Amino acid sequence: MQDLSLDSLKNSNLIESKISLDNQIVNDAKFPRISVVTPSYNQGEFLEETIRSVLLQNYPNLEYIVIDGGSQDHSVAIIKKYEQYLSYWISEPDRGQSHALNKGLAKVTGDIFTFINSDDLLLPQALWKVAEFFMQHPLTWVVNGGHNEIDRTGNFIRSFNPCPVISWEDLVLDRAVQPQPGTFWRTSAFQKTGNFREDLHYYFDQEFFIRLLFYHSLATFNGPCACARIHTDTKSYRGSDVVTSERCKELLKWLPKIKNKSFTKLIAYRSTILLLLQSTHSFEQQNLFSSIFLALKYPVLLTSPTYLKPTFRRLTGNKRCVVF
Fold first, then answer.
1. Per the domain annotation, does 252 fall within a domain?
2. Which of 98, 131, 152, 320 is close enough to 196 for a disulfide, judged by CB 3.0 to 4.6 Å?
């Protein structure tokens, strides 16, 4: 049997031998059809390893779709190398990652869905484990099988396995983040949740998971099923202030939906407002008029020492004020 370890995915000799996929991939309707979409743009450094990690699952009912945003590097050459094993692929300009995913979703015919970014990996046997879990738990809609973090060259950093059971309220209260790597859900869930938000470029996955978990409870099992690659060229790393702004704006929309938990909501509301403002403002640099205006717009700031200290210093002229 062919070596399906993570190390084998990097083996150049195996790549050159075209990995004998003709003998690896067959169709078998006895297993649920799993649809995997990879959105990609100029990720030629990692894309081949990602594609191989999916195809080498040797899963008998796989639908694999690659949506490239018109890459200018060698990504298209990599995709063409494996196109006979792909269900669909295209390379053309798009409006961002969420738009690319929705384009892929329009082609999906599977029972179970996930997406894997073009710098991440599926670990060996992941799709088998996911299929088995869904077959044994027919009432489950969404599951996470855990994931590892790796660095740019594939070295292990840490493991998130098993993933904790997270609710939509945990996400809205900013208590947790739902890992995208290793999360799978029934494709029919999109009928209730709708597609990915194309107006969001960084927080679209977490916003979608809030909607998904609002309707369906998360299940987990021991994996891990995927690897998330951590490096400085990731989109979320480069746009940290914009990520914070998108996240906070969406959380503020969802916080009113949480019933009871008044004090917890107040604390979450205050911290979210502070993070949102600090992503675009500096309380230390605001003039007095701007500070007062912000408090009128967001009265919860009057409970925050982070806001009150610099404001009180401007009012009193006391730069060493430590009243609060």
1. no
2. 98
Domain range holding 298? 257-316
Look at residue 294 and tell me if it is in a domain. Answer: yes
- The number of folded domains in the chain is 2
Q: Identify whether residues 268 and 199 lie together within a single domain.
A: no
Q: Contact 54/122 with Cβ under 8 angstroms? A: yes
* pLDDT of the chain, 324 residues: tens digit per residue: 334 344 544 443 333 334 445 544 455 668 999 999 999 999 999 999 999 999 999 999 999 999 999 999 999 999 999 999 999 999 999 999 999 999 999 999 999 999 999 999 999 999 999 999 999 999 999 999 999 999 999 999 999 998 899 999 999 998 899 999 999 999 999 999 999 999 999 999 999 999 999 999 999 999 999 999 998 777 655 557 788 889 999 999 999 999 888 888 888 888 888 788 777 665 555 566 566 667 777 777 777 777 677 766 766 665 554 443
Q: What is the pTM of this model?
A: 0.82
Q: How far apart are CA 254 and CA 256, in angstroms?
A: 6
Residue 179 lies inside a defined structural domain of this protein = yes
- Assess whether 224 and 277 both reside in one domain: no
Spatial separation of the C-alpha atoms in residues 13 and 17, rounded to whole Å: 6
User: Bridge partners of 150?
Assistant: 156, 229
Contact between residue 258 and residue 215 where contact means Cβ atoms under 8 Å apart? no
125 plus 179 within the same structural domain = yes
Cα–Cα distances in angstroms (integers) from residue 285 to residues 204, 278, 296, 303, 322, in the given order: 31, 11, 18, 20, 18
Question: For residue 178, which of 214, 153, 151, 140 has the smallest C-alpha distance?
Answer: 214
